[in-house]
Design a protein that fits this description.
three-stranded antiparallel sheet; disordered N terminus; single chain; about 15% strand
Protein backbone atom coordinates (compact mmCIF):
# COMPACT_ATOMS: atom_id res chain seq x y z
CA UNK A 1 0.00 0.00 0.00
CA UNK A 2 1.09 3.57 -0.61
CA UNK A 3 0.08 6.74 1.14
CA UNK A 4 -2.26 9.01 -0.80
CA UNK A 5 0.60 11.34 -1.84
CA UNK A 6 2.83 8.39 -2.84
CA UNK A 7 5.62 9.77 -0.65
CA UNK A 8 8.01 6.92 0.24
CA UNK A 9 7.77 6.05 3.91
CA UNK A 10 9.63 3.71 6.16
CA UNK A 11 7.56 0.77 7.44
CA UNK A 12 5.63 1.82 10.54
CA UNK A 13 4.70 -0.11 13.64
CA UNK A 14 1.18 -1.49 13.55
CA UNK A 15 -1.31 -0.76 16.32
CA UNK A 16 -0.79 -4.27 17.72
CA UNK A 17 3.02 -4.15 17.69
CA UNK A 18 4.35 -5.73 20.86
CA UNK A 19 1.45 -8.16 21.15
CA UNK A 20 2.58 -11.80 20.99
CA UNK A 21 0.08 -14.46 19.90
CA UNK A 22 0.53 -18.23 19.99
CA UNK A 23 -1.84 -19.64 17.38
CA UNK A 24 -2.46 -23.34 17.91
CA UNK A 25 -5.77 -23.37 16.04
CA UNK A 26 -6.50 -25.20 12.79
CA UNK A 27 -8.20 -24.61 9.43
CA UNK A 28 -9.56 -21.09 9.00
CA UNK A 29 -11.69 -19.20 11.54
CA UNK A 30 -9.36 -18.81 14.54
CA UNK A 31 -6.17 -18.72 12.44
CA UNK A 32 -7.72 -15.92 10.39
CA UNK A 33 -8.26 -13.94 13.58
CA UNK A 34 -4.58 -14.28 14.43
CA UNK A 35 -3.60 -13.39 10.87
CA UNK A 36 -5.62 -10.17 10.98
CA UNK A 37 -3.72 -9.26 14.15
CA UNK A 38 -0.43 -10.05 12.40
CA UNK A 39 -1.46 -7.66 9.62
CA UNK A 40 -1.66 -4.94 12.28
CA UNK A 41 1.77 -5.65 13.73
CA UNK A 42 1.27 -8.48 16.23
CA UNK A 43 3.94 -11.17 16.40
CA UNK A 44 2.22 -14.48 15.70
CA UNK A 45 3.72 -17.94 16.07
CA UNK A 46 1.80 -20.77 14.40
CA UNK A 47 1.92 -24.04 16.37
CA UNK A 48 1.17 -27.33 14.57
CA UNK A 49 1.54 -30.98 15.42
CA UNK A 50 4.77 -32.56 14.20
CA UNK A 51 4.18 -33.71 10.63
CA UNK A 52 1.46 -31.12 10.06
CA UNK A 53 -2.10 -32.34 9.88
CA UNK A 54 -3.94 -29.02 9.60
CA UNK A 55 -6.83 -29.69 7.19
CA UNK A 56 -6.25 -26.34 5.48
CA UNK A 57 -3.03 -27.75 4.04
CA UNK A 58 -5.16 -30.22 2.08
CA UNK A 59 -7.89 -27.90 0.82
CA UNK A 60 -7.92 -26.50 -2.70
CA UNK A 61 -6.30 -24.57 -4.20
CA UNK A 62 -3.15 -26.75 -4.17
CA UNK A 63 -0.33 -26.49 -6.72
CA UNK A 64 2.83 -28.61 -6.90
CA UNK A 65 1.83 -30.13 -3.58
CA UNK A 66 1.86 -26.66 -2.00
CA UNK A 67 -1.24 -25.45 -0.16
CA UNK A 68 -1.89 -22.00 -1.62
CA UNK A 69 -4.78 -21.14 0.70
CA UNK A 70 -2.62 -22.00 3.69
CA UNK A 71 0.12 -19.69 2.47
CA UNK A 72 -2.26 -16.73 2.20
CA UNK A 73 -4.42 -17.44 5.26
CA UNK A 74 -1.42 -17.75 7.59
CA UNK A 75 0.63 -14.89 6.21
CA UNK A 76 2.94 -13.01 8.54
CA UNK A 77 3.43 -15.90 10.98
CA UNK A 78 6.40 -17.96 12.10
CA UNK A 79 5.79 -21.70 12.32
CA UNK A 80 6.75 -24.26 14.96
CA UNK A 81 5.72 -27.81 15.78
CA UNK A 82 4.85 -29.20 19.19
CA UNK A 83 2.87 -32.21 20.37
CA UNK A 84 1.21 -30.81 23.48
CA UNK A 85 -0.42 -34.19 24.14
CA UNK A 86 2.92 -35.56 25.36
CA UNK A 87 4.19 -34.61 28.84
CA UNK A 88 7.33 -33.03 27.39
CA UNK A 89 5.23 -31.10 24.88
CA UNK A 90 2.86 -29.91 27.58
CA UNK A 91 5.78 -28.72 29.71
CA UNK A 92 7.29 -26.88 26.77
CA UNK A 93 3.99 -25.17 25.95
CA UNK A 94 3.67 -23.94 29.52
CA UNK A 95 7.15 -22.52 29.16
CA UNK A 96 6.22 -20.85 25.87
CA UNK A 97 3.07 -19.15 27.14
CA UNK A 98 5.04 -17.23 29.73
CA UNK A 99 6.26 -15.06 26.86
CA UNK A 100 2.97 -14.68 24.98
CA UNK A 101 -0.01 -12.41 25.53
CA UNK A 102 -2.60 -14.53 23.74
CA UNK A 103 -3.20 -18.23 23.12
CA UNK A 104 -5.68 -19.00 20.32
CA UNK A 105 -7.22 -22.48 20.09
CA UNK A 106 -10.23 -24.07 18.44
CA UNK A 107 -10.26 -27.64 19.70
CA UNK A 108 -13.53 -29.19 20.78
CA UNK A 109 -14.62 -27.95 24.18
CA UNK A 110 -12.67 -29.69 26.95
CA UNK A 111 -9.84 -30.96 24.75
CA UNK A 112 -7.08 -28.85 26.31
CA UNK A 113 -8.38 -29.74 29.76
CA UNK A 114 -7.93 -33.43 28.95
CA UNK A 115 -4.36 -32.73 27.90
CA UNK A 116 -3.62 -31.08 31.26
CA UNK A 117 -3.77 -27.57 29.83
CA UNK A 118 -6.87 -26.28 31.57
CA UNK A 119 -7.36 -22.56 32.14
CA UNK A 120 -6.09 -22.63 35.74
CA UNK A 121 -2.87 -24.35 34.63
CA UNK A 122 -2.32 -21.88 31.82
CA UNK A 123 -2.89 -18.94 34.15
CA UNK A 124 -0.50 -20.32 36.74
CA UNK A 125 2.12 -20.19 34.02
CA UNK A 126 1.07 -16.71 32.86
CA UNK A 127 -1.58 -14.84 34.89
CA UNK A 128 -2.04 -12.22 32.15
CA UNK A 129 -2.57 -14.71 29.34
CA UNK A 130 -5.71 -14.24 27.23
CA UNK A 131 -6.98 -17.63 26.04
CA UNK A 132 -9.28 -17.29 23.03
CA UNK A 133 -11.35 -20.42 22.52
CA UNK A 134 -13.13 -20.32 19.17
CA UNK A 135 -15.49 -23.26 18.80
CA UNK A 136 -18.63 -23.91 16.83
CA UNK A 137 -21.04 -23.61 19.74
CA UNK A 138 -19.15 -22.30 22.78
CA UNK A 139 -17.85 -23.68 26.05
CA UNK A 140 -21.28 -24.24 27.58
CA UNK A 141 -24.68 -25.54 26.49
CA UNK A 142 -25.90 -28.91 25.19
CA UNK A 143 -24.08 -28.54 21.84
CA UNK A 144 -20.70 -27.57 23.30
CA UNK A 145 -18.97 -30.81 22.23
CA UNK A 146 -20.36 -30.97 18.71
CA UNK A 147 -17.98 -30.70 15.77
CA UNK A 148 -18.62 -27.90 13.33
CA UNK A 149 -17.58 -26.31 10.07
CA UNK A 150 -18.53 -23.02 8.43
CA UNK A 151 -21.61 -24.36 6.67
CA UNK A 152 -22.91 -25.74 9.97
CA UNK A 153 -22.51 -22.33 11.62
CA UNK A 154 -24.19 -20.66 8.66
CA UNK A 155 -27.12 -23.09 8.71
CA UNK A 156 -27.69 -22.89 12.47
CA UNK A 157 -27.28 -19.11 12.74
CA UNK A 158 -30.17 -18.39 10.38
CA UNK A 159 -27.86 -16.96 7.73
CA UNK A 160 -28.32 -19.73 5.16
CA UNK A 161 -32.10 -19.49 5.46
CA UNK A 162 -31.87 -15.98 4.00
CA UNK A 163 -30.29 -17.12 0.72
CA UNK A 164 -31.83 -18.79 -2.31
CA UNK A 165 -34.90 -18.25 -4.44
CA UNK A 166 -38.27 -17.65 -2.79
CA UNK A 167 -39.97 -20.99 -2.28
CA UNK A 168 -36.81 -22.89 -3.21
CA UNK A 169 -33.93 -24.48 -1.37
CA UNK A 170 -31.72 -22.30 0.82
CA UNK A 171 -28.24 -21.92 -0.63
CA UNK A 172 -24.73 -21.99 0.77
CA UNK A 173 -22.09 -19.63 -0.60
CA UNK A 174 -19.05 -21.08 -2.36
CA UNK A 175 -16.92 -19.63 0.43
CA UNK A 176 -16.92 -20.35 4.20
CA UNK A 177 -18.55 -17.12 5.28
CA UNK A 178 -19.12 -18.49 8.79
CA UNK A 179 -15.39 -19.00 9.30
CA UNK A 180 -14.56 -15.54 8.00
CA UNK A 181 -17.05 -13.83 10.31
CA UNK A 182 -15.85 -15.83 13.32
CA UNK A 183 -12.27 -14.87 12.41
CA UNK A 184 -13.20 -11.19 12.45
CA UNK A 185 -14.74 -11.58 15.92
CA UNK A 186 -11.60 -13.44 17.00
CA UNK A 187 -9.40 -10.53 15.97
CA UNK A 188 -11.83 -8.09 17.60
CA UNK A 189 -11.67 -10.13 20.83
CA UNK A 190 -7.88 -10.07 20.86
CA UNK A 191 -7.69 -6.34 20.18
CA UNK A 192 -10.31 -5.63 22.86
CA UNK A 193 -8.49 -7.64 25.51
CA UNK A 194 -5.14 -6.11 24.61
CA UNK A 195 -6.65 -2.64 25.06
CA UNK A 196 -7.89 -3.73 28.50
CA UNK A 197 -4.54 -5.16 29.57
CA UNK A 198 -2.53 -2.24 28.23
CA UNK A 199 -4.70 0.11 30.25
CA UNK A 200 -4.06 -1.69 33.55
CA UNK A 201 -0.67 -3.28 34.36
CA UNK A 202 -2.31 -5.18 37.23
CA UNK A 203 -5.13 -6.66 35.15
CA UNK A 204 -5.28 -10.44 34.78
CA UNK A 205 -5.81 -12.52 31.69
CA UNK A 206 -9.08 -14.22 30.88
CA UNK A 207 -10.85 -16.84 28.81
CA UNK A 208 -12.70 -15.62 25.70
CA UNK A 209 -15.58 -17.97 24.86
CA UNK A 210 -16.23 -17.28 21.17
CA UNK A 211 -18.89 -19.39 19.42
CA UNK A 212 -18.78 -19.20 15.63
CA UNK A 213 -22.55 -19.72 15.38
CA UNK A 214 -23.17 -16.78 17.70
CA UNK A 215 -20.68 -14.62 15.79
CA UNK A 216 -22.67 -14.99 12.58
CA UNK A 217 -26.01 -14.68 14.37
CA UNK A 218 -24.76 -11.43 15.94
CA UNK A 219 -24.78 -9.82 12.50
CA UNK A 220 -28.44 -10.64 11.91
CA UNK A 221 -29.78 -7.87 14.13
CA UNK A 222 -33.39 -7.60 12.89
CA UNK A 223 -34.32 -11.28 12.93
CA UNK A 224 -35.34 -11.60 16.62
CA UNK A 225 -37.11 -8.27 16.89
CA UNK A 226 -39.12 -8.60 13.68
CA UNK A 227 -40.17 -12.10 14.74
CA UNK A 228 -41.28 -11.01 18.21
CA UNK A 229 -42.91 -7.71 17.28
CA UNK A 230 -44.29 -8.51 13.81
CA UNK A 231 -44.49 -12.29 13.76
CA UNK A 232 -42.22 -12.32 10.71
CA UNK A 233 -39.86 -15.17 9.87
CA UNK A 234 -37.57 -13.79 7.20
CA UNK A 235 -37.15 -16.24 4.32
CA UNK A 236 -35.14 -16.42 1.08
CA UNK A 237 -36.14 -13.80 -1.47
CA UNK A 238 -33.78 -14.50 -4.33
CA UNK A 239 -31.71 -11.42 -5.14
CA UNK A 240 -34.36 -9.08 -3.77
CA UNK A 241 -34.31 -7.60 -0.30
CA UNK A 242 -37.46 -7.89 1.80
CA UNK A 243 -36.65 -4.66 3.65
CA UNK A 244 -35.96 -2.23 0.82
CA UNK A 245 -36.68 -1.70 -2.88
CA UNK A 246 -35.51 -1.56 -5.50
CA UNK A 247 -32.56 -3.72 -4.54
CA UNK A 248 -31.97 -6.55 -6.95
CA UNK A 249 -29.69 -8.15 -9.49
CA UNK A 250 -30.48 -7.52 -13.14
CA UNK A 251 -29.18 -8.67 -16.53
CA UNK A 252 -28.36 -6.42 -19.46
CA UNK A 253 -29.08 -7.21 -23.11
CA UNK A 254 -25.49 -8.39 -23.63
CA UNK A 255 -25.64 -10.80 -20.69
CA UNK A 256 -23.91 -8.80 -17.93
CA UNK A 257 -25.27 -9.27 -14.40
CA UNK A 258 -25.23 -6.28 -12.07
CA UNK A 259 -26.72 -5.13 -8.75
CA UNK A 260 -28.66 -1.90 -8.27
CA UNK A 261 -29.77 -0.42 -4.94
CA UNK A 262 -32.02 2.66 -4.85
CA UNK A 263 -33.44 2.51 -1.35
CA UNK A 264 -33.92 6.17 -0.53
CA UNK A 265 -36.60 8.23 -2.23
CA UNK A 266 -34.16 10.77 -3.80
CA UNK A 267 -32.04 7.97 -5.31
CA UNK A 268 -35.16 6.22 -6.58
CA UNK A 269 -36.32 9.42 -8.23
CA UNK A 270 -32.99 9.73 -10.03
CA UNK A 271 -33.22 6.08 -11.09
CA UNK A 272 -36.67 6.68 -12.57
CA UNK A 273 -35.30 9.53 -14.66
CA UNK A 274 -32.26 7.50 -15.73
CA UNK A 275 -34.42 4.69 -17.12
CA UNK A 276 -36.86 7.06 -18.80
CA UNK A 277 -39.69 6.48 -16.34
CA UNK A 278 -39.96 9.74 -14.33
CA UNK A 279 -43.66 9.09 -13.74
CA UNK A 280 -42.79 6.18 -11.44
CA UNK A 281 -41.48 8.62 -8.82
CA UNK A 282 -45.01 9.98 -8.31
CA UNK A 283 -46.81 6.66 -8.61
CA UNK A 284 -48.41 5.85 -5.22
CA UNK A 285 -47.20 2.27 -5.62
CA UNK A 286 -43.57 3.42 -5.70
CA UNK A 287 -43.43 6.82 -4.01
CA UNK A 288 -42.03 5.51 -0.69
CA UNK A 289 -39.83 2.60 0.27
CA UNK A 290 -42.60 0.74 2.17
CA UNK A 291 -44.85 1.12 -0.89
CA UNK A 292 -42.08 -0.11 -3.20
CA UNK A 293 -41.53 -3.19 -1.03
CA UNK A 294 -45.25 -3.99 -1.17
CA UNK A 295 -45.28 -3.57 -4.95
CA UNK A 296 -41.88 -5.09 -5.59
CA UNK A 297 -42.95 -7.51 -8.33
CA UNK A 298 -44.39 -4.78 -10.55
CA UNK A 299 -41.43 -2.47 -9.94
CA UNK A 300 -38.82 -5.12 -10.67
CA UNK A 301 -40.60 -6.26 -13.81
CA UNK A 302 -40.47 -2.71 -15.16
CA UNK A 303 -36.83 -2.20 -14.27
CA UNK A 304 -35.84 -5.64 -15.51
CA UNK A 305 -37.45 -4.99 -18.89
CA UNK A 306 -35.58 -1.72 -19.34
CA UNK A 307 -32.23 -3.18 -18.34
CA UNK A 308 -32.75 -6.24 -20.55
CA UNK A 309 -33.34 -3.95 -23.54
CA UNK A 310 -29.97 -2.16 -23.20
CA UNK A 311 -26.33 -3.21 -23.34
CA UNK A 312 -24.34 -2.88 -20.13
CA UNK A 313 -22.28 0.05 -21.43
CA UNK A 314 -25.49 2.08 -21.77
CA UNK A 315 -26.76 0.95 -18.37
CA UNK A 316 -23.43 1.79 -16.73
CA UNK A 317 -23.33 5.26 -18.27
CA UNK A 318 -26.92 6.10 -17.31
CA UNK A 319 -26.55 4.88 -13.71
CA UNK A 320 -23.18 6.54 -13.26
CA UNK A 321 -24.47 9.89 -14.51
CA UNK A 322 -27.47 9.66 -12.19
CA UNK A 323 -25.40 8.80 -9.12
CA UNK A 324 -27.09 5.43 -8.55
CA UNK A 325 -25.32 2.83 -6.38
CA UNK A 326 -24.64 -0.13 -8.67
CA UNK A 327 -21.96 -2.63 -9.60
CA UNK A 328 -21.35 -5.33 -12.12
CA UNK A 329 -20.99 -8.72 -10.44
CA UNK A 330 -17.21 -8.96 -10.25
CA UNK A 331 -15.15 -12.09 -10.70
CA UNK A 332 -11.57 -12.15 -9.41
CA UNK A 333 -10.49 -11.40 -12.99
CA UNK A 334 -12.61 -8.22 -12.90
CA UNK A 335 -11.12 -7.23 -9.54
CA UNK A 336 -7.59 -7.62 -10.88
CA UNK A 337 -8.31 -5.29 -13.81
CA UNK A 338 -10.57 -2.75 -12.11
CA UNK A 339 -9.01 0.75 -12.06
CA UNK A 340 -10.20 1.53 -8.53
CA UNK A 341 -8.78 -1.68 -7.04
CA UNK A 342 -5.56 -1.07 -8.97
CA UNK A 343 -5.27 2.55 -7.85
CA UNK A 344 -5.59 1.50 -4.21
CA UNK A 345 -3.31 -1.53 -4.64
CA UNK A 346 -5.98 -3.71 -3.07
CA UNK A 347 -4.05 -6.79 -4.15
CA UNK A 348 -0.56 -6.99 -2.69
CA UNK A 349 2.19 -9.52 -3.34
CA UNK A 350 3.44 -11.56 -0.40
CA UNK A 351 7.05 -12.77 -0.55
CA UNK A 352 7.07 -16.57 -0.86
CA UNK A 353 10.01 -19.02 -0.85
CA UNK A 354 8.38 -21.35 -3.40
CA UNK A 355 6.88 -18.95 -5.94
CA UNK A 356 8.79 -15.73 -5.37
CA UNK A 357 5.59 -13.93 -4.42
CA UNK A 358 1.86 -14.63 -4.31
CA UNK A 359 -1.11 -12.26 -4.64
CA UNK A 360 -3.37 -11.62 -1.64
CA UNK A 361 -5.85 -9.03 -0.36
CA UNK A 362 -4.30 -5.91 1.15
CA UNK A 363 -4.15 -5.07 4.84
CA UNK A 364 -7.50 -3.74 6.09
CA UNK A 365 -8.10 -1.13 7.43
CA UNK A 366 -5.70 1.49 6.13
CA UNK A 367 -4.37 4.25 8.38
CA UNK A 368 -3.13 7.23 6.34
CA UNK A 369 0.54 7.88 6.99
CA UNK A 370 1.15 4.43 8.44
CA UNK A 371 2.82 2.18 5.88
CA UNK A 372 2.86 -1.36 7.27
CA UNK A 373 5.38 -3.91 6.02
CA UNK A 374 4.20 -6.54 3.56
CA UNK A 375 3.98 -9.91 5.35
CA UNK A 376 5.43 -13.07 3.87
CA UNK A 377 3.30 -16.12 3.17
CA UNK A 378 2.47 -18.72 5.81
CA UNK A 379 5.26 -20.94 7.10
CA UNK A 380 6.08 -24.52 6.27
CA UNK A 381 5.44 -27.02 9.06
CA UNK A 382 7.97 -26.34 11.82
CA UNK A 383 9.93 -23.92 9.64
CA UNK A 384 10.97 -21.74 12.57
CA UNK A 385 11.53 -24.39 15.25
CA UNK A 386 15.21 -23.59 15.70
CA UNK A 387 14.61 -19.85 15.66
CA UNK A 388 11.66 -19.71 18.06
CA UNK A 389 12.81 -22.39 20.48
CA UNK A 390 16.30 -20.91 20.38
CA UNK A 391 14.83 -17.70 21.76
CA UNK A 392 13.75 -19.77 24.78
CA UNK A 393 17.25 -21.16 25.31
CA UNK A 394 16.82 -24.58 23.71
CA UNK A 395 20.04 -25.63 21.97
CA UNK A 396 20.43 -27.85 18.92
CA UNK A 397 21.03 -30.98 20.96
CA UNK A 398 17.85 -30.47 22.96
CA UNK A 399 15.86 -29.86 19.80
CA UNK A 400 17.30 -33.01 18.22
CA UNK A 401 16.25 -35.01 21.26
CA UNK A 402 12.73 -33.56 21.20
CA UNK A 403 12.54 -34.27 17.48
CA UNK A 404 13.61 -37.88 18.01
CA UNK A 405 10.83 -38.27 20.58
CA UNK A 406 8.37 -36.67 18.10
CA UNK A 407 7.61 -33.90 20.56
CA UNK A 408 8.46 -31.32 17.90
Amino acid sequence: MHSPDDTPRRPARGALSGVRILDMATVLAAPLGATLCADQGAEVVKLELPGGGDALRGLQPVKDGKALWWKIANRGKRGITLDVRQPAGRALLLRLVTQFDVLVENFRTGTLDRWGLDLATLHRANPRLVVVRLTGFGQTGPYKSRPGFARIFEAMSGFTNLTGEAGGSPLHSNFPVGDAVAGLFCAFSIASEMARLRGDPQALGCEVDLAATEALFRLLDPLPVEHEQLGTVRMPAGNCASYTAPSNMYRSRDGIYFSVVASSDPIFQRLCAAVGKPEWAGDPRFATNPARVLNLVALDEGLGQWFAAHDYDTVERRLEEAGIPFSKIFTIADIEQDPHYRAREAIIRLPDPDYGSLPAPCVVPRVPGRELPIPRTGPDTGEHNAEVYGEFGLDAATLDALRAEKVI
